[in-house]
Amino acid sequence: MMDVLWSAPAGSALPAAFAGILGLLIGSFLNVVIHRLPKMMQRESDNYVAQESGKPLPHEDRYNLLVPRSACPQCGHQITALENIPVLSYAVLGGKCSGCKAAISIRYPIIELLSGLLSAFLIWHFGSGPMGVATLLFAWLLIAMTFIDADTQLLPDDLTLPLLWLGLLLNLNGTFVPLKEAVTGAAAGYLCLWSVYWLFKLATGKEGMGYGDFKLLAALGAWLGWKMLPAIILLSSLVGAIIGIALIILAKRGRDVPIPFGPYLAIAGLLALLYGKPLTQMYLGLY
Fold it and tell me: What mean pLDDT is predicted for residues 189-194?
């Protein structure tokens, strides 16, 4: 059985199904990461400011990805193991807390489903060897960053930097691209958006994007190499334009409301991972 699950070729159904189940479980944990990591960062910042000014620390209780246990924000009911089964628990509970009947955000099962379906597809597409398993980590980190950036307009170093270093380490043996291309991709990815940031700021006096975007594109360059950066930038711009127009028309979102760029980079990175080479060849063929 383990031989079937491990190192199976692309197109194998059983490893893909197993990855889908694992992805659902990871998706449940990603919900915790998306909710808690920004709060952890804010608490750390608050404590640092208080410490520097000689004031009592405002947050002395333990708060991390494991402690305290997840609970309903309305009534404090602690989520039991049976109430934490991905997707299924949400359906059985009817999308409501078992304690106070307050509505549970539909986003929780959506993220679990997204993680599960994407995990299954990646293993089906790449197989269950080292490359396929690596793409799972790639996707899970991008899912977390996408929703954190959408909520807070932050791309935490705790996620972008591990993604960057993991890409470089994986490419020591050329898992995705030769190491030289990966290192060049990381540097070029960072400098590309860094240059855009400063040109925009010098021209307008405003900040058009955050430093987290530089680090995310650097991480994508570390995974996929510098040759894929033009495709990623073009894809992210296209995805951003489509989603931005849809938000303005359908959600009545004002044009002056800032829209985070990280989710578009993440989507473009996944598309480039899956279809980057044929897209690049098609793009170059136009010229």
Answer: 93
CA distance 146 to 260: 9
pLDDT tens digits, 6-31 = 677 888 889 999 999 999 999 999 99
Q: Name the DSSP letter for residue 82.
A: G
pLDDT tens-digit series, residues 210-250: 889 999 999 999 999 999 999 999 999 888 888 878 777 77
Residue 63 corresponds to which tokens in the numbers above? 């708060």
Amino acid at 287: Y
Contact 110, 2 (CB under 8 A): no
7: tokens are 């190192």
| pTM, two decimal places | 0.93
Write down the pLDDT at residue 257.
64
Check if the beta carbon of residue 17 is closer than 8 Å to that of residue 120.
yes
Q: Mapping DSSP to helix (H, G, I), strand (E, B) and coil, where does residue 64 land?
A: coil
Q: Are 268 and 235 spatial neighbours (Cβ–Cβ below 8 Å)?
A: yes
Give the C-alpha separation, 13 to 233, whole Å.
33
Tell me which DSSP letter residue 71 carries.
B
176 pLDDT higher than 60: yes
Amino acid symbol at 72: C
Pairwise CA distance, residues 137 & 117, whole Å: 14
Q: Would you give the DSSP letter of residue 172?
A: G
Helices (H), 75-175: 88-92, 107-126, 130-152, 157-170
Contact 270, 233 (CB under 8 A): no
Instruction: Please say whether the beta carbons of 143 and 111 come within 8 A.
Output: yes
